[in-house]
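New to this. Comment on this protein:
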Amino acid sequence: METSNKTILIVEDEADLREALATALAYEGYMILQAGDGEDGLKKAFESKPDLILLDIIMPKKDGLEVLKEIKSDDSLKDTKIIVMTVLDDLEKIAEVVESGGDEYIVKTDITLEGIITKVAENLKAQEI
């Protein structure tokens, strides 16, 4: 799979999870950027224009929903694939993510690292169509 030209921004405040995702996705050949809070994630998204963003909802400085809405309202980033990751298995949050333009909603406790890698690949493939 040709992935080396795809950039993924991981916006996650849990350092261990962020590092595990970064390591696994880099191993798959993706270019990886990381941010530990919503403000830094938003800044890096605007600077780097990643192909896909893995975005946590509950974070310091700016939560993931705010970040999602700001990205999707910007013409230069609105087509960026965004996979929202959270511990919240909440139908209202899922609906809010979908309404705000999120491409996928992952409950962290319901998926493996391999599952996330698969979701990333599927979303990037869909972006090319």
About this structure: The longest helix spans residues 113-128.
